Structures are given as C-alpha cells and as structure tokens.
Amino acid sequence: MISIFLICVLTYYFNFNFALKTEVQTSTELHNALKNVNPGDEIVLKNGTYRGQFKIFINGTQSNPISLTGGRNAVLTNGEYAQAIYMNANYWILNGDY
Question: pTM of this prediction?
Fold first, then answer.
C-alpha cells in the first residue's frame, strides 16, 4: 500500500513518464495499440501490410510526444484511394525508415 502511494506521489511530483514501446505485427494489434497509447509511448510496426483505416485520437504532449515508427516494409493501406491514417490528435511523431 505504501509503495503504490509513493509511486503516485513521485509520479505527480517529478512528472515521471512510464513510456511503453509496443511492437505490433497485425492490423488488430495496431488498432488496439492506437486505442491504448499514452504520452511518451512508441508504437513500432513490424514488417508487413496493415489493412484498414487507423484512427488516432489520443494526444501526446509537447514534452512526451507519441511515436509511430515503421520500416520501409511496414505498409499501411486502406485500398487504392482511401486514407489509411485518420489523425485528430496532437504531438505525434510519424517516422518511416526510407
């Protein structure tokens, strides 16, 4: 009980960021990661094709942006003319390795 209280106090006082790095390899995993991401977190796309529209609504912060990263063989697609990423959020870094 005391340790949980101490973690809460330290987190608030020092603004600790417990960022997570989440690796995904399916469209379902990416959808879930985008719904559960927190400021400072990083989502890493493994090589593969991710089909669907991926919606981003959770904000990062100026000091803790959220990252979505993938290599050149991680492809997001929603058909020939449809957008694969819909973003209505701030403080994100989208990074592809080219």
Answer: 0.79
